[in-house]
TrEMBL record:
Its main location: nucleus. Residues 668-677, 734-743 have a biased composition (Polar residues). This is DNA polymerase kappa. PANTHER family: DNA POLYMERASE KAPPA, DNA REPAIR POLYMERASE UMUC / TRANSFERASE FAMILY MEMBER. Belongs to the DNA polymerase type-Y family. The lineage of its organism: Eukaryota, Metazoa, Chordata, Craniata, Vertebrata.
Length: 846
DNA sequence: TACATACAC
DNA sequence: CATGGTGTATGTA
C-alpha cells in the first residue's frame, strides 16, 4: 500500500477521518503526513471511536452489497441492461441544452472577508472558527491540510502558525447582501444556496444582452483606491478556456429586448473602465468583476447547461476563475466521463465508498455499470446515478420551498443530571417557540434529539392531533420524550453532549392561500388532500415538475438497500419505462404552459447604468387562478381545467386560458394589479441564516433585531382552515379535519367546509359540486380584488425550443412569496441565548 | 409515523 | 480541553 501512515485498521477509517483533497486549494500537499497527524491527534477520543463504529457499519453495508452482486445472474444483468438502455434513450430524448446555468461561489468566503479587513492576515495561514471547529480556511492554510469542518486544535497541529479568527457573521451577511444585489441583475430569480453561493439562470439575461449598447456593458473600476493598496483593475482571467459558442444559441431571438437602452455612459466621470462583451463568458466575467469591485472579494463561477454541471464547473478554476462547459452533447459527455463521482453534489463519503467498492470512481464507470447499479440500488438512487452519468440535471432553478421543519440543538459539556436535562430541554423549546413565532409556524410533530458522550445519536418523535407553537406546548411533548428516555436508561443517567428539539408537520396558518390550494387539491381528482397539508400539495407539484425536468440535484441519501421488490426469479423491473414516458409527457405539457408564463425577461438591468428595466408589466398579469392552474391545476393532455367552470379549456396558452377564466368570471378584471401581500411573511432565508449564526452574534454583541416584521397578522389566520378534502369514500370523516375547524361531517350529514352550511344530500358528487361552487365564489372574490397576483408576469419573450425545461412560474403556487428580489431588505436577526459556535463556511440555507 | 442515515453548507 | 448547527431527502419498518 502506498500509505505508510495508515495501519490496516485505520485504512477504512481514512474515508471518514482523513482529509478530503476533493476541494480546491489542496493540491500537492503531503497527504500521508497530514493524515497521520489527524489520526494521531484523534486516536483514542470518543469521537474517534464513534467514527470507527460508523465506518464499520458502512463496511457491512458494502459487504452486503457485494454479496448481492455475487448472486446476480447473467440473465438478470442482461435484462437490466435492456432496461437501462430504454431509460437512457428516454432521458436522452429530454436533454435540454438551451439553458445557461451559472453557479457562483465566493472564494474562501469568510476567510477572505477577514483578510480583506485585516491586512495583517494576508500572508498568514488563517481560518475562521474556533479551537473546536473551523468554518473555513484561507488558501495558505489549506496547503497544510487545514480546512472547513476540521476542529481548530487539529488544525493547529497541522499548522502551528495558524491564526484562528472568530467569525463575524454580521459582516458576512452584509457582504452577502451586496453580492446578491449583483446576482439579481443577471437573474432576479437566482437561488441563493448559502451566504456565498448561488445558482443563476443567465439565459434571459443573455438574450437581452445581445442588443445592449456597449455603455451598458461597461463598468467602472473602483474609484477610491482601496486603502489596503494594491488594486488590480483587470478582471483577470486565469483560465485559458474554450471558445465562445453563445452566438449560436442566441441567433434567433425574435422579440428579444423590447428596451432601448438608455445609454448614459458610466465612465463619463473618468476612472478606468472595463468593457465586457456579449457572450456568456463575458457576462459572467462582468458579474465577477462587479463583485470584486464592490466587495474586494473574488468569486468563481461555472457555466453549464444545467445545475449539476454548473456546480462542478464552478470548482474547476477556483479560486478567482470561471469555467464554461459548452452546451453540446459531446462536450457534456466528455466532461462527465472524467468526472470523479465524489465531485457530484449529492454523492458524499458513503456513496463514494460504496461505488468505489464496485469499481466505480468516475462517471464513466458509473455509466458503464448502470445495469449493475440498477440491481443493487433503489430506483431513485440509480436514476440519479444515471442522470449524473449522462450529464443531466435540472435546467430550471427552483425557488426555495417552504420550510418543513424548524429546530434548535446545542452541544455542551457532559450533562448527566436529569434535572438539568429537563431545564435545558425547556430552554431549547423556548428558543424554538420564539423562532416559530417569528414565522408564524405551528407544527404537529415534535422530535427530540439526543447525542450521548459517545456520539451516539437518538431521535424520538411524537405527532399530535393538532398543531402547536408555544414553549409550553412544545415542552410538554419534548419533556415526555425525554422522560421516557431517561427512564429507559435508568438507573444509569443519560450522559448527554447534545440535545435538540425540532418541530415539523406544519399546518398552514395562512388565510387566503389555503383556499387556492384547496381548489388545487380538488382539481387533483383522485387525490386526497389531507386537509392541512396544503403545502404538501405544492411541494409535490413542484417536485413533479422538477423531476419532469431533468433531475433535481438530489442525492440518494438513504442509499442502496437492494431491491426488495426484486423477485428472485425475474430480474427486471417493468414499471420504469412507463414512468419515464409519463414524465416526459407531463414535462412536455408543462413546458407548453411554461412557455406562456415564462417570467418577463426584463431582468438584465445593468446596475451601474440603470438600464430601463420595466415596461414589461404590460401583458395580462396572471391571476392567482391562472398561476395556480399553471403550477398546480390539473393539466391534462388536452389543456387546462378552468377553476371556475371546471371545464377543459383546450389550450396550453395561459393567456388564452386566462381570458377564458375572465369570461367565466363574468367580467374582465383580468389583471388585479401589483402583487405583494404586504403581509407576505418574513424572509425565511435570512432568518435561517441568523438562526444558524445566533450564538456567535451574541458573542459579538452586534446582533440587532432589525426587522421584526412578523407582526401579528396572526389573529386572522386561524379563521378558515378546514379545507375541502376530496371525499372519496363513503366516510366523509375520513377526510381528516384540519386544525381549527371541526366542520367535518361526522355522521351522514355533509357540511360544506366553505359556507359552513349543511347540505342535505348524501350524494358526494352533488356535495362536491356544491363545494366547488362555494370555492368559486371565493376565487371570484379574490380575483376581483384584494388578492395579489403572483409577481412574474408572463413573458412574451422567447419561445423556447420544445423540450426545454424551465417550467412554471416559481411562485405561482403560492401567494406567499418569500421574495428574494430585494436582496437589500434587512434580515431579521436573532438574538439568542447562548449557543453554538461556528458554522462552516456557507452554510446557511436561505 | 417513527427512526436512522446521508448529504449540503 | 477540544469534532457544529440547520435543514432536506430517502429507506425501512
Amino acid at each position: 500500500m502506498d500509505n505508510g501512515a495508515a495501519s490496516a485498521k485505520d485504512e477504512g477509517l481514512l474515508s471518514r477521518m482523513a482529509l478530503n483533497d476533493n476541494k480546491a486549494g489542496m493540491e500537492g500537499l503531503d497527504r500521508d503526513m497530514i493524515n497521520k497527524i489527524i489520526m494521531e491527534t484523534s486516536k483514542g477520543s470518543r469521537f474517534y471511536e464513534s467514527e470507527l463504529k460508523r465506518e464499520h457499519q458502512v463496511n457491512q453495508r458494502i459487504e452486503k452489497i457485494m454479496l448481492q452482486k455475487g448472486q446476480i445472474t447473467e440473465q438478470q444483468l442482461k435484462k437490466a441492461q435492456a432496461q437501462v438502455e430504454r431509460v437512457v434513450s428516454e432521458l436522452e430524448r429530454g436533454r435540454d441544452l438551451t439553458r445557461l446555468i451559472v453557479h457562483v461561489d465566493m472564494d474562501a468566503f469568510y476567510a477572505a472577508v477577514e483578510m480583506r479587513d485585516c491586512p495583517e492576515l494576508k500572508d498568514k495561514p488563517m481560518a475562521v472558527g474556533s479551537m473546536s471547529m473551523l468554518s473555513t480556511s484561507n488558501y495558505h492554510a489549506r496547503k497544510y491540510g487545514v480546512r472547513a469542518a476540521m476542529p481548530g486544535f487539529i488544525a493547529k497541529k497541522l499548522c502551528p502558525n495558524l491564526v484562528i479568527v472568530p467569525p463575524n457573521f454580521n459582516k458576512y451577511r452584509a457582504v452577502s447582501e451586496e453580492i446578491r444585489e449583483i446576482f439579481a441583475d443577471y437573474d432576479p430569480h437566482f437561488q441563493a444556496v448559502s451566504l456565498d453561493e448561488a445558482y443563476l439562470d443567465f439565459t434571459d439575461h443573455l438574450e437581452q444582452r445581445q442588443s445592449w449598447p456597449e455603455s451598458s456593458r461597461t463598468h467602472r473600476c473602483r474609484t477610491n483606491s482601496s486603502p489596503t493598496g494594491e488594486e488590480h483593475i483587470e478582471p483577470e482571467e486565469a483560465a485559458p478556456e474554450q471558445i465562445d459558442l453563445s452566438p449560436v444559441l442566441f441567433e434567433d431571438s425574435p422579440n428579444s429586448s423590447p428596451f432601448l437602452l438608455s445609454s448614459e455612459g458610466v465612465c463619463a466621470s473618468g476612472g478606468a473602465c472595463e468593457v465586457f462583451g456579449t457572450s456568456v463568458e463575458e457576462a459572467v466575467k462582468e458579474m465577477r468583476f462587479r463583485i470584486e469591485q464592490k466587495t474586494m472579494l473574488t468569486a468563481s463561477a461555472g457555466i453549464a447547461p444545467n445545475m449539476m454541471l454548473a456546480k462542478v464547473c464552478s470548482d474547476k478554476n477556483k479560486p478567482n476563475g470561471q469555467y464554461r462547459l459548452p452546451s453540446t452533447r459531446e462536450a457534456v459527455m466528455e466532461f462527465v466521463q472524467n468526472l470523479p463521482v465524489r465531485k457530484v453534489s449529492g454523492i458524499g463519503k458513503v456513496s463514494e465508498k460504496m461505488l468505489n467498492a464496485l469499481g466505480i470512481s468516475n462517471c464513466a464507470h458509473l455509466g458503464q455499470q448502470m445495469a449493475l447499479l440498477s440491481l443493487l440500488f433503489s430506483e431513485t438512487a440509480w436514476h440519479h446515478f444515471m442522470q449524473v452519468s449522462l450529464g443531466l440535471s435540472s435546467t430550471y432553478i427552483p425557488r426555495h420551498e417552504e420550510r418543513k421543519s424548524m429546530s434548535t440543538e446545542r452541544t455542551f459539556k457532559e450533562l448527566s443530571r436529569a434535572e438539568e436535562q429537563f431545564s435545558l430541554c425547556r430552554e431549547l423549546c423556548g428558543d424554538l417557540a420564539e423562532d416559530m413565532k417569528k414565522e408564524g409556524l405551528k407544527g404537529k410533530t415534535v422530535t427530540l434529539k439526543l447525542k450521548n458522550v459517545n456520539f451516539e445519536v437518538k431521535t424520538r418523535a411524537q405527532t399530535l392531533q393538532s398543531a402547536i407553537a408555544t414553549l409550553d406546548e412544545i415542552f410538554a411533548v419534548a419533556k415526555d420524550l425525554l422522560k421516557t428516555e431517561i427512564e429507559n436508561e435508568s438507573p444509569q443517567p443519560l450522559r448527554l453532549r447534545l440535545m435538540g428539539v425540532r418541530v415539523s408537520a406544519f399546518v398552514s396558518l395562512d388565510d387566503k392561500k389555503p383556499l387556492q390550494k384547496s381548489i388545487i387539491g380538488f382539481l387533483q381528482t383522485g387525490k386526497t388532500d389531507s386537509t392541512d397539508s396544503t403545502q404538501e400539495m405544492h411541494q409535490k407539484q413542484e417536485k413533479e415538475h422538477f423531476s419532469n425536468h431533468s433531475v433535481p440535484a438530489w442525492p440518494l441519501a438513504g442509499l442502496p438497500s437492494a431491491q426488495k421488490s426484486q423477485k428472485p426469479g425475474e430480474g427486471g423491473r417493468t414499471s420504469e419505462p412507463q414512468s419515464f414516458f409519463q414524465r416526459a409527457h407531463a414535462k412536455r405539457l408543462q413546458l407548453q404552459a411554461a412557455k406562456a408564463s415564462t417570467e418577463e425577461g426584463g431582468q438584465g438591468r445593468d446596475a451601474s447604468v440603470s438600464a430601463p428595466t420595466d415596461g414589461c408589466g404590460t401583458s395580462a398579469a396572471p391571476t392567482e387562478a391562472q398561476a395556480s392552474t399553471s403550477g398546480c391545476g390539473r393539466l391534462t393532455s388536452d389543456g387546462l381545467t378552468c377553476p371556475v367552470c371546471f371545464r377543459q379549456v383546450e389550450t396550453t396558452d395561459l393567456n388564452v386560458f386566462n381570458e377564458h377564466i375572465d369570461r367565466c368570471l363574468g367580467n374582465s378584471c383580468g389583471n388585479p394589479n401589483q402583487s405583494n401581500h404586504p403581509d407576505s411573511e418574513s424572509d425565511l432565508e435570512s432568518e435561517a441564516e441568523c438562526k444558524a449564526l445566533e450564538g456567535v452574534n451574541r458573542c459579538r454583541g452586534e446582533c440587532t433585531t432589525e426587522s421584526a416584521k412578523a407582526n401579528g397578522d396572526e389573529e386572522s389566520q386561524s379563521k378558515r382552515e378546514a379545507q375541502p378534502s376530496l371525499i372519496k369514500d363513503a366516510h366523509p370523516a375520513s377526510s381528516v379535519t384540519g386544525a381549527n375547524h371541526e366542520t367535518t361531517p361526522q355522521s351522514s350529514v355533509l357540511i360544506c367546509p366553505v359556507c359552513q352550511r349543511t347540505q342535505d344530500t348524501g350524494d358526494l358528487t352533488l356535495f362536491n359540486h356544491h363545494v366547488d361552487l362555494c370555492l368559486n365564489q371565493e376565487v371570484l372574490h379574490e380575483l376581483r380584488g384584494q388578492t395579489s397576483p403572483p409577481k412574474d408576469p408572463p413573458s412574451l419573450t422567447r419561445n423556447r425550443t420544445e423540450d426545454t425545461g424551465h417550467l412554471l412560474p416559481r411562485q405561482a403556487c403560492k401567494g406567499k412569496s418569500k421574495r428574494r428580489d430585494s436582496p437589500s431588505s434587512p434580515n431579521p436577526k436573532r438574538t439568542k441565548g447562548h449557543g453554538p459556535r461556528n458554522t462552516i463556511d456557507k452554510f446557511f440555507r436561505l
